[in-house]
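Much of our argument rests on the idea that a fold can be written as discrete symbols. In the encoding step, the backbone of a single protein was reduced to a row of integers, each denoting a local shape. We regard such an encoding as a compact summary of how the chain folds. The record that follows shows the chain in one-letter code together with its fold in token form:
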Amino acid sequence: MNVVIMGAGAVGGYFGAVLSKNGVDVTMVARGLHLAAMKKNGLSIESYWGDFVVKTSFTESLDELVPVDLVIHSTKLYSNNESLPLLKPIIGPKTTILTLQNGIGSGAIIAGFYGWDKVLQGATYVESVIKSPGHIHQSGSMAKIEFGEKDGSISNRTNVIKDLLEMEGIQVEISDDINATLWTKMVSVGAIGTLLTAARSSLVELLKNEFGANTLTTVMEEIIAVGKANGIYFPPNVVDDKFFVISREAEEFKSSLQYDFNNQNPLELDDILGTVVRQGLDKGIPVPASMTLMSVLDKFKKGDIF
């Protein structure tokens, strides 16, 4: 199979590099200094499973490519209107677009361009950052992709893609309820990154704070309440389970929202916790803690205001 990584940043770049290292035909799409560094020296990965460099195809344009088997779409959510039209030259009859974007609405946005028959929705759990242009650091023993069909079926393409992705450095799971998967991830990604960014705090500092853990629990419970109002099933004790995981990994935890804030980049705010707040207000569900976080960070969401 031939694979295009649309958005070869910290997440897409890591997964694309692991695939390329293991012999998969990978083209990575990036731009700026990161792209220039990869073209010159390859993509350097530091990871839990070892360090390596891959030298594959790095590009800013897909105009010269033919249709591919799989697109892993991992740009920031606010880039969709720019990035999705660029995929047109590589979308053919057998192409699947696997979205690893945060939030719960990415699949519908992509389907609006190319149809649901092209889309698989996914969630990823990996701690990775761009340490410097052309250099990605991944930490911890989890680098998981969970994905599935909209209707929960286990299809031929889900099995084929699972077989492609499953290798050292990537754990894979097919979800039979992808909406529940996305909302369950939202419980952590919508709460933790937003609160850390608003508090200008690390996760270790937040959990030690007298009020930090309580505030985090409150936001998580608000997200769950809105999800349940949408008919979403959450695993029992989901908040306790999330706390167990984040407490164990607090020293290594990195928030992509906080990274973008610290680097004066635009923030994936409206499409993550902002979605929860809007849906809560529409359904009459109180979300005061989440609204407070949105209010604190709203003026920063376009970046470059410091």
User: Anything to note?
Assistant: The domain at 182-300 is CATH 1.10.1040.10 (N-(1-d-carboxylethyl)-l-norvaline Dehydrogenase; domain 2). The longest strand covers residues 119-132.
